[in-house]
Design brief:
This protein is of the alpha+beta class. It has one domain. Helix content is 22%, strand content 29%. The chain is built from one helix and five strands; from the N terminus they run βββββα. A three-stranded antiparallel β-sheet has the order 3-4-5. A hairpin with a 4-residue loop joins strand 3 and strand 4 (45-52). The longest helix has 22 residues, at 74-95.
């Protein structure tokens, strides 16, 4: 069991020469988002996160309060894409398909 304030360690096979990865979350902050958007250029992919307070049918304008921006290079964005795809497949296998 992981103890609070203790880094998470991903064990690799030392025989393969792979390093042990220590995930230090001592400076991590948690935010809630129910809205996201993605922008990109040749050099970077930006993911914007935020929240809206109310979304009602017939509204002329929906205000989204942006709270976080994550900037990734395209290689890190591709790895994130693969991990999210895998996580969502596992979720749907367990709980059923998500309707979009």
């Amino acid at each position: 069991m992981i103890k609070e304030n203790e880094p998470v360690v991903t064990q690799r096979n030392p025989a393969d020469g792979e390093p042990t990865i220590v995930w230090d979350d001592s400076n991590m902050q948690t935010s809630f988002a129910n809205v996201c958007n993605v922008l990109g250029t040749r050099e970077e992919v930006m993911i914007l996160f935020g929240s809206n307070q109310a979304w009602q049918v017939g509204q002329k304008e929906v205000k989204v309060s942006l709270s976080n921006r994550v900037v990734l290079n395209p290689y890190a964005a591709k790895r994130l894409h693969m991990m999210l795809d895998m996580a969502l497949r596992q979720y749907e296998d367990r709980f059923g398909p998500l309707k979009t």
